Amino acid sequence: MPTVRDIRAKAGKEPITMLTAYDAPTAAIVDDAGVDMILVGDSMGNAVLGYDSTLPVTVDEVASRTGAVVRGTEDALVVADLPFLSFGYDEKSAVENAGRMLKEEGANAVKIESGPHTVELTETLSNLGVPVMAHLGLTPQSVNQVGHVRQGTTREDADEILTLAKEHEEAGAFSLVLEHVPANLAETITTELDIPTIGIGAGPHTDGQVLVINDAVGLGDWSPPFSKQFGDVKGEMKRAVSAFREEVESGEFPAEEHSHVEDELDGVY
Ligand code: KIV
Ligand code: NA
């Protein structure tokens, strides 16, 4: 069983890899490919649930998807993302929501969009045996406050992110996602922290990289400029779906090899 200790041990020696997944078959593909961690991200809101932000995603939705990902995974560390307003308000419900991902769904850790309000929670959860991945820089659950722009671009903002990074490490976070921040800031944070940094749109100097699976395999309509499309799954699905329709309409499918004739029914049916 993978542990956060394995992830920490890899930092600084080998690049750490993480992709999102939201269902068992996709998780199995990511796991078989040897990716270190699978994030059941609240990016599921945009990626698979049809919303235009992560805000509507519920604890039930993340829990259901986390269970599916866990069942499809053998080796990778599964991290469940805590959705908007499921933490940060009162500690009791945050602990219940986080605990549910491990206790009921089998996740190995949770990720929390971090801020001054999550330092204590990170410490509480870590002490209780719930490993916490912190997340700083662009935190999409704050879209109504900050939009979707790069963070940490001024000296003051960069200082604040560095300070919060240290506070979350001190509180017991086992790693830190840095989203959409300048590469030089991500590099400094990576140097100053002992725990691994996992970047997305944060340049090449973090200990690891994470992408949303839809962006990485080419499944969505849009992906951010800092992402890279490594495949054309959407093109392949379109091709397969069109081929199905055409072959049913032309009578080519189902063919004899897809059908069964029962001898006993010969002459009767
Ligand atoms: O929800 C998500 O997929 C994320 C990653 C982009 C880090 O938070
Ligand atoms: Na997220």
Structural write-up:
By secondary structure, the chain is α/β, with parallel strands linked by helices. The protein has a single domain, classed as Alpha-Beta Barrel (TIM Barrel). The protein contains 11 helices and 8 strands. The chain has helices spanning 4-10, 24-32, 44-47, 59-71, 91-103, 119-128, 143-146, 155-171, 183-192, 213-217, 233-250; strands at 16-20, 37-40, 77-81, 109-113, 132-137, 175-179, 197-200, 208-211. An 8-stranded parallel beta barrel has the order 1-2-3-4-5-6-7-8, surrounded by 7 helices. α2 (24-32) crosses α4 (59-71) and α8 packs parallel to α9. The model has no long low-confidence stretch (mean pLDDT 97). The site of sodium ion has 5 residues, from loops. Sodium ion (NA) binds next to loops.
Q: What is the topology?
A:
Blueprint (H helix, E strand, L loop, with lengths): L3 H7 L5 E5 L3 H9 L4 E4 L3 H4 L11 H13 L5 E5 L9 H13 L5 E5 L5 H10 L3 E6 L5 H4 L8 H17 L3 E5 L3 H10 L4 E4 L7 E4 L1 H5 L15 H18 L19
Parallel strand pairs: 1-2, 1-8, 2-3, 3-4, 4-5, 5-6, 6-7, 7-8
Helix pairs in contact: 2-4, 6-8, 8-9
The structure holds 3-methyl-2-oxobutanoic acid and sodium ion (NA).
3-methyl-2-oxobutanoic acid binds next to β6.
In short:
The chain has helices at residues 4-10, 24-32, 44-47, 59-71, 91-103, 119-128, 143-146, 155-171, 183-192, 213-217, 233-250, and strands at 16-20, 37-40, 77-81, 109-113, 132-137, 175-179, 197-200, 208-211.
